[in-house]
Write the structure tokens for this entry.
Amino acid sequence: MKKISKTIFFLFLLLIIGAFFGYREYSDPFNRIKRTGILRVGMTGDYIPMSFLNEGTGTYEGFDVELAEAIADELGVKIEYVPTTWPTLMEDTLSNRFDMAICGITITDDRKEKALMSDGYFVNGKTILVRTEDIEKYKNTGRYQPERSHCHGESGRNQ
């Protein structure tokens, strides 16, 4: 009976230790990243110039790709890109599908309440673009000039 008790105790102890280390890895992504040598980065791949999937090459490109690569280089690990979508971004983040998401994400109070967000790293002031040879035509901005072409997005989604 003592032998069975010791065996059960030993198995129970292994279970507790395994649970502890499994929890530790899940709760501390840095340990998993260093152990596996892989940084999992969530990207939507649809937000030029931040991150976009080049369908011709099958690779991600953009500012955020360069940022992710710099982070991975600093950590001495490789990147595994994990596709996500805007509607599932927060759910995917919270369910541990990836270690971080980098895809031109806007800081919002709702997102800050649910997840850790870095300080903003890209100031994106929208601007007006005109040809330099037409600059004199736009000196007087106080009146509407119907002979000019105007462009605008069809919605508020950077179109």
User: Anything to note?
Assistant: The chain has two domains: 1-32, 37-138. Residues 37-138 form a domain with the D-Maltodextrin-Binding Protein; domain 2 fold (CATH 3.40.190.10).
